[in-house]
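Hi U.,

Before I forget, here's the chain from the pilot set. I'm dumping it here mostly so it's searchable later in email.
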Amino acid sequence: MAQTLAEKIWADHAVTELDGGATLLYIDRVFLHERTGSIALKGLEAAGRSVREPGQVFCTMDHIVDTFPGRGDETRMPGGRAFITTTREAARAAGIHLFDIGDPDQGIVHVVSPEQGIALPGTTLVCPDSHTGTVGALGALAWGIGSTEAEHAMATKTLAVNRPRQMRVSFEGTLPFGVTAKDMILALIGRHTAAGGVGYVVEFAGAAVRALEMEARFTLCNMAVEFGAFSGLVAPDEKTFAYVEGRPFAPKGALWAEALEHWQGLHSDEGARFDREIHIDAASIVPQVTWGTSPQHEIPVDGDIPDPSAEADGNRRKAMERALEYMGLSPGRPLAGTPIDAAFIGSCTNSRLSDLRAAAAVLRGRRVAEGVRAICVPGSSRVKAAAEAEGLDRVFTEAGFEWRESGCSMCFFAGGESFGRGERVITSTNRNFENRQGPGTRSHLASPATVAASALAGRIADVRDYAREGT
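Structure:
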């Protein structure tokens, strides 16, 4: 029987079918971070259990750590130091691999995982973080879990999971100038809502997806969860294999040849049945920016803020009215030109080297508008070092950006550093919920290049007015 890519990985990892319809799946990798990792590790210890395969469990410091230069264990989050030190102690006691503060390989979990070759095509990977599906770009099946599930996965190498339905989203054609993977996923969510993928594992396909480089595919899969999906993935191809080869935890020698032979079969078969198919013309997408408090509240950057009165569904109309009130915006007005207070480039969505290059291409030789606070946080220490080797840090700092150490930083507010109440921020992150980047902060999601252009303008701006085609 013809199978989808996700069905193939599922079948390869199915241990047994359980009463109630769930499948007991074998879990290849578990990745933790200091916000939830200490809870899972200490819970396992308190239950008198140990990590079954310590060599297949990893942990990084990313969520709570400060990103200011010269950082240590102290953080601006109340109680943050305890999360860091407890995770460090528990990770060492369990014998798992820890990417600690000061480690040249430290970084955001979903950046480090593929960067190190920990996530691989055809594997299952879980992490107590909702954006774990990022690594589906490699052709892995990865999803976010809770701390209790992390304990179970570490102790048994298995998890009981309900089988998701199958969806394929095909972006056909060629992306226009100035349009990125971030714009693709925002367009999908805007057209089909933040609940459009609920209950599905989504395979991204089509000519425009195949044309994306690996780091752009990570962006696409990263926000599958904002579409409501169980996870997102892309069939591995020659770009995938070239990306993985030689990474620290990737197979070597004869094992590489064996793995490659298996990976080349990881694609949806001709005639495989998907429960739902969505087709999007890539040429119809323009740079996107969110206006409200959900990723589905997005419009083309050159569009007008929607009017709730035109929405027939009462619940959606009320949500739109609340979003506009929170964001301090009026319907019918152009979104472009809205003044901003800050610009943020970072997060597991858009903090890789290609993201920084794209933003730097816009910033080079220009200055951030007066009164705008601009911050760039590389996704990992490796990304930071590579960017500095290319001189990108100087492009950012000369333009007026702060250049930080790697970490999640102000992607979310956990009691530490934040943007101010009522401040309007254009951001390359993945969530624009109320209070996401600080109490009362108003967040607009966009691509790194759009963030850079807006920082220069001092207002939400169309990157196509600042970028040079072909750069």
